[in-house]
Amino acid sequence: MNDEERQKRLNGQLTGSRGTGYAEIFPNKKIKIEKITIYTDGSSKGNPGPGGYAAIIFEAGKVKEIGGRDLHTTNNRMELRAAIEALRALSGSENVERGEIEIHSDSEYLIKGITLWISGWLKNSWRTKAKKDVLNKDLWQELLEQTEKRKVEWHHVRGHADNELNNRCDKIATDFADGINVQLYDGSKEKYFI
């Protein structure tokens, strides 16, 4: 998909074709689709410096924590990387194909970038209103690619507050940035330790 088609999709002028779904063939059948919920966070020591990212994915009664490290990066790049890697980790899920995803992040840069600014960047050939190149364009393009065939709801949460899932993401991302070995959970929702 080229930038012009992406812009039209963001403006609601172009709809994606996913083929005929079960609900269209059997309209009287009730289908319960569990929404996939994701929390993300990024961290950088020095900004730029060593960084880490984290995501917690709730899907079909399971919880999976993911994370990673970059030796020289910025906090904003790690925020973007967390969302990209979380969405990549979903590939193949029935819920993903139907676009039932919500992402929670404490990064205004991530939330505003993907919901408000990106349509202008596409319109202006990846340039800002000030006619400067968009920072982190490579990651914005990756994130756009991961989201363009899905319906993703973006939610901003207060960072370093009373949200245990955001705090857990922060801990994972910070530990990765610090080079600490992180024990990541992958199992049932009932046994998740938060």
SSE order and pairing:
Elements: H1 3-10, H2 22-25, E1 36-44, E2 49-59, E3 62-73, H3 75-88, H4 94-97, E4 101-105, H5 108-123, H6 137-147, E5 152-156, H7 164-177, E6 186-188
Parallel strand pairs: 1-4, 4-5
Antiparallel strand pairs: 1-2, 2-3, 3-6
Helix pairs in contact: 1-5, 3-6
Structure explained in plain terms:
This protein is α/β, with parallel strands linked by helices and 194 residues long. It has a domain at 33-107 and 150-188: Nucleotidyltransferase, domain 5. It is 37% helix and 23% strand. Strands 5-4-1-2-3-6 form a six-stranded mixed β-sheet. The longest helix has 16 residues, at 108-123. The radius of gyration is 18 Å and the shape is globular. 28% of the residues are buried.
Summarize the structure.
The protein has helices at 3-10, 22-25, 75-88, 94-97, 108-123, 137-147, 164-177, and strands spanning 36-44, 49-59, 62-73, 101-105, 152-156, 186-188. With 194 residues, the protein is an alpha/beta fold.
